[in-house]
Amino acid sequence: MILTPLTVPPPDGWGAEQPVRPSPLRPWQIRERCFNHRRRGVDPAEIRAFLHRVADELTIAQTALVAVQEENVRIRRALRAWQSAQSANHRYR
Q1: What is the pTM of this model?
Q2: 27, 55 contact by CB (below 8 A)
Q3: Rounded CA gap, 76 and 93, in Å?
Q4: Which helix (H) or strand (E) holds 69?
């Protein structure tokens, strides 16, 4: 089976279809995910343990991403302030 990305038609009805980006998974969605049981299926406890591990790692990654984004905003603001100060100093020479 070949999986293709989901698409929706363009808003105006013309042009190429736009890819649909599914909303990001949250750790709680991973922890609470349930699967159907099959006669020769896998161990449900093993699946649950794995999903908890993935959710924990996702939590760490999302926390790190937020910290990096906040640092990025701080650096941009500092750069803008520095550029403004440099521009003001250059004008008055």
Answers
A1: 0.58
A2: yes
A3: 26
A4: helix 44-91
